[in-house]
Design goal:
This protein is an alpha+beta fold and 525 residues long. 34% of the residues lie in helices and 15% in strands. A hairpin with a 4-residue loop joins strand 8 and strand 9. The model has no long low-confidence stretch (mean pLDDT 91).
């Protein structure tokens, strides 16, 4: 990835964890012509050739072969903002070399399938390539490494690490995979592992609150959450318990799919109780913020992670969402000043952006993306880094799949397109964020094509090309201001009332169910 300068032998660094993860191959030559090649695949930005012993060496016919997982990019984003378009594509370029026979954290160092990295990377795959086979394989590899419910942090080559959050993300990935593919055979195969893991998590529940209460320990003994979240890893952590809530809800839906009604009900009830207990014990009404954790009876000061995770997982009561999302933005500087440390890492940014997306704070999220990731581009990044200051550490990766969150956010919340089933999709344009956007979202055998624009303050246009055999839902926000909706020249909404059975009002937004084909929707306010 970079060269060790100012040394007599500026060879690539051999790796920060194990010397055998060396990026250097050596050959002893005997003066005859021969073919040589690297022992294994290598990843980097430079190839440095060094010769010793004073004899001349002639190199001929140099070839570089690229080894990649066989996918084709179908997703895209086109907006009036060239910076955001570039940021979207850099996320794809970062994930691509981290997809081989498994998801990897980085193509350079251990090349491990750490599940936190895989969780984020799979979301980028979903909006760029649409492949589901690699996730299926990863879920199986992880399932094989659970030991009596104890979750692995990575697989197939696991270690002694205990990362409870990575285990919970495995459950959430299983839920996402089933939702998108309806692969019942996979769910049946690894459902017993899910049952054991959910029982394992119960051992951490506080007898008084029901919240997970994690003993103090190093990150590899508790949970990671984010490199910038040391106080969220122990005690009754807001971030960890928000993850637990999301895991209980996802596990409940998987249990329903397995017709395991007892566990489905129990997990759903536990999730509701957990939400109430978290809001009762960790929300600080006077500050309109969540405490980071409660440890040994002491409340730890609010942090970025303590606001983002409950917003991302929907634990915050609706009336408190504006205050908590504002607190998140206040705790998160709008930009990283030179020499300073960010309050969140490139990994944790996935949940920060998800929180802002769930809260409807799209314009603020776009500003954040431009500031944080635009800075990385200014520093020379061509793929996203392990951290926002990874250029200052020689052992830090400059291509890390967990740093790709903007690509997911821009497709899912700015363009507004998400896949919701094998042949189902949902579109909710963020017209207050970009003004107009076009793009494509991969589906099973094709892609959904989208273009929308806010033409005037009183008129908007949404165009969709939905592949044959698919169905979808278009969500129109701010419906209180909508006077008419016209779909393919047919009036379907007039003065606050639907004129067709395919349109439904759910609180403020209007949800319109639409079939395959070319669709044109005009919105007048």
């Amino acid at each position: 990835e970079r060269l060790l300068t100012d040394t007599l032998r500026p060879l690539p660094y051999p790796g920060s964890l194990h010397p055998q993860w060396n990026q250097t191959d050596s050959w002893v030559l005997d003066g005859t012509s021969r073919s040589i090649s690297t022992i294994d695949a290598r990843a980097g930005r430079y190839i440095l050739v060094g010769t010793w012993n004073g004899s001349p060496v002639e190199l001929r016919d140099i070839h570089v072969y690229e080894e990649r997982y066989p996918v084709v990019q179908h997703g895209e984003l086109r907006s009036p903002n060239p910076l955001l378009n570039e940021i979207w594509q850099v996320g794809v370029d970062t994930l691509y070399p981290n997809m081989s026979d498994a998801y990897t954290d980085t193509p350079w160092r251990e090349r491990g399938q750490w599940w936190g990295d895989a969780y984020v990377g799979e979301h980028i795959n979903r909006v760029a390539f649409g492949d589901t086979a690699l996730l299926r394989r990863g879920l199986l590899l992880m399932a094989e490494k659970f030991e009596e419910g104890r979750p692995p942090a990575r697989a197939p080559n696991d270690g002694a690490e205990l990362l409870l959050d990575y285990g919970m993300l495995w459950v959430q990935s299983l839920h996402d995979h089933y939702q998108i593919t309806e692969d019942k055979e996979l769910l049946k195969e690894i459902y017993p592992v899910l049952l054991e893991f959910m029982t394992y998590l119960e051992h951490y529940e506080s007898a008084s609150t029901g919240l997970l209460d994690i003993p103090f320990g190093h990150w590899w003994e508790t949970a990671l959450i984010d490199w910038r979240a040391p106080h969220s890893r122990y005690g009754q952590s807001t971030a960890v318990n928000a993850l637990y809530y999301g895991t209980l809800m996802d596990a409940s839906q998987l249990a329903e799919a397995m017709q395991d009604t007892d566990d489905a009900l129990a997990w759903r009830q536990k999730a509701c109780s957990l939400r109430d207990q978290l809001n009762a014990h960790l929300y600080l009404p006077a500050q309109h913020r969540y405490a980071t954790t409660i440890f040994e009876g002491e409340t730890v000061t609010p942090s970025v992670h303590a606001q983002a995770w409950p917003l991302a997982y929907g634990l915050v009561p609706e009336e408190n969402v504006p205050d908590v999302s504002s607190a998140l933005l206040e705790l998160l500087p709008g930009e990283i000043e030179s020499g300073s440390t960010a309050e969140v890492g490139t990994y944790g940014m996935f949940w920060v952006l998800e929180a802002l997306g769930q809260s409807g704070r799209i314009p603020e999220a776009l500003e954040l993306i431009e500031a944080y990731y635009g800075r990385l581009l200014d520093l020379g990044a061509t793929t996203w880094w392990e951290g926002f200051n990874a250029h200052l550490s020689y052992t830090a990766s400059l291509c890390h799949s967990w740093g790709t969150a903007p690509t997911w956010f821009l497709t899912s919340y700015a363009l507004g397109a998400q896949r919701t089933g094998p042949d189902r999709w949902r579109l909710k344009p963020a017209m207050d964020g970009l003004g107009q956007a076009s793009g494509a979202l991969p589906l099973r055998d094709n892609q959904l094509e989208v273009h929308w624009e806010r033409r005037t303050c009183a008129e908007s246009y949404i165009g969709v090309v939905a592949p044959a055999g698919t169905s979808g839902e278009i969500v129109i926000p701010n419906v209180k201001k909508v006077i008419t909706l016209t779909l393919d020249d047919q009036r379907i909404w007039q003065e606050g009332k639907p004129l067709t059975e395919d349109i439904e009002r759910r609180r403020d937004p209007v949800h319109l169910t639409v079939p395959e084909g070319v669709l044109v929707l005009d919105v007048r306010q």
